[in-house]
Design brief:
Largest sheet: 2 strands, antiparallel
Distance between the termini: 45 Å
Low-confidence stretches: 156-163, 419-425
Radius of gyration: 21 Å
Order of helices and strands: HHHHHHEEHHHHHHHHHHH
Structural class: mainly alpha
Helix content: 55-70%
Mean pLDDT: 83
Number of helices: 17
């Protein structure tokens, strides 16, 4: 087992560009990633929020102590728009705008490319690496949990003995994740990781792990995650600048995965099918988020320049709890438009464009991998609203991936051996 694990970690390192880093930064990244992953899975003892926000604050102090304070101009612009938005907009107190903006700034300074120092780039590289390992454990473990009848979503630690509930109502299987909506994107990114490792290392174990991860997304009945995974793979096959041999190998992987699915297809896809049928019975629209899309567009029309307010929605839309302030915007990208208006949306698009441009400037397996993760999450974020939910795991993962895309050329320059050429911009 020890030799197998050593072999796995050695091969999986092919998709990571992790520059040299001192032990303290590695340990800090490991602790933070474990706390974040536990929050997405079995939970954290005592107070989830207290421990999560605490480690965020500790990591920020650590990065400031090690590398000083240097913030990316794009994120300074985003913070300025958000603060201006809070000062001008009449945001209901239940949405706790100041508390949420502080947490959001804290998250982005630590996890994404807002903090523009060498130690921050190194720290984020290891944070991303450890997080991907954790996602793989949850996704692959959930595949086995499906057949063992283990479902943490049932009440964090319940055991179900049959498939009837899953098969009759899709979206009720979370496996080792706290919710099916959490398992879907986790499995999506895990599948992409094994997909890219297999491009470099043709060991059949990575083909099997890709299949297990992809099936966990199917078991979760997450249509947005499946769509994101499919689009990311198709993009990589068509525009990924891979040679003919690798392209044939990837097509073979997909074909073999489809064949392996046949024996369990009747059970595996029943949840997705039933979930869609239930949505069709409730609405004539294929997209169950259409009502939320319409609400966000109407909010944008009511205040197109600065938006209706950071992390808030129109209370009359029915997408918020007026007591707790919890919101369900249903879409991340349109939420930025409705909450921050054209001004904030323009800065957000500029950040996404920089993520795209920086990954395209470096020709490495790592850059292709993180860009595919970016594509998958960009698609997924159209149908789930977590972009400003800084206390949630999906916001953490989304901004971490954007940060890795922007960090690509900087992390590459910090590598001890540059085996690939930086493309001309």
């Amino acid at each position: 087992m020890k030799k197998l694990l050593r072999h796995f970690f050695a091969d999986s390192s092919a998709i990571f560009d992790t520059p040299a880093c001192d032990r303290s930064a590695k340990r800090m990244a490991l602790i933070f990633s474990v706390i974040a992953l536990l929050g997405a899975s079995i939970g954290i003892p005592f107070s989830d929020d207290l421990l999560y926000y605490g480690i965020l604050a500790v990591c920020l102090v650590f990065l400031l102590y090690k590398g000083g304070f240097k913030v990316s101009p794009l994120f300074i612009a985003l913070y300025f728009v958000i603060l201006l938005n809070i000062l001008i907009s009449d945001i209901p107190p239940c949405f706790k705008p100041m508390q949420r903006v502080i947490i959001f700034i804290l998250l982005t300074l630590v996890c994404t490319s807002a903090m523009d120092t060498n130690i921050a780039v190194r720290f984020r590289a290891y944070l991303f690496k450890y997080t991907i390992y954790g996602l793989a454990i949850i996704a692959v473990g959930s595949f086995f949990c499906f057949f063992a009848g283990i479902n943490l979503m049932a009440s964090r630690a319940d055991i179900l003995s049959d498939f009837e509930k899953y098969a009759s109502t899709g979206g009720w299987f979370g496996g080792l994740a706290s919710h099916s909506m959490m398992l879907g994107p986790i499995a999506m990114i895990s599948a992409l990781a094994f997909y890219f490792i297999y491009q470099k290392k043709t060991d059949k174990i990575f083909l099997i792990l890709f299949f297990m991860s992809a099936m966990s997304a199917v078991f979760a009945a997450s249509r947005a995650a499946l769509l994101g995974l499919i689009i990311a793979i198709i993009y990589n096959l068509i525009f990924g600048k891979v040679n003919t041999l690798i392209r044939k190998r990837m097509i073979g992987l997909l074909v073999l995965s489809a064949i392996l699915t046949i024996p369990i297809a009747g059970i595996a896809f029943k949840g997705v099918i039933n979930k869609q049928e239930n949505r069709n019975a409730q609405s004539t629209s294929l997209n169950s988020r259409q009502g939320k899309f319409d609400s966000r567009i109407e909010e944008f029309k009511s205040s197109p320049i600065l938006g209706i307010g950071f992390s808030s929605v129109n209370p009359e839309s029915g997408d918020a709890d007026p007591i707790t302030g919890r919101i369900e915007p249903g879409t991340s990208h349109l939420s930025v438009l409705s909450m921050l208006g054209l001004l904030g949306f323009a800065v957000y698009v500029a950040i996404l464009y920089k993520a795209y441009a920086n990954t395209r400037s470096v020709r490495t397996l790592h850059s292709r991998f993180v860009f595919s993760c970016f594509i998958a999450f960009f698609v997924h974020a159209w149908f789930e609203g977590y972009i400003f939910a800084a206390g949630g795991f999906l916001a953490y993962l989304y901004w971490l991936i954007i940060g890795q895309c922007i960090d690509c050329p900087y992390a590459f320059k910090l590598l001890p051996h540059k085996k690939n050429k930086i493309a001309r911009q």
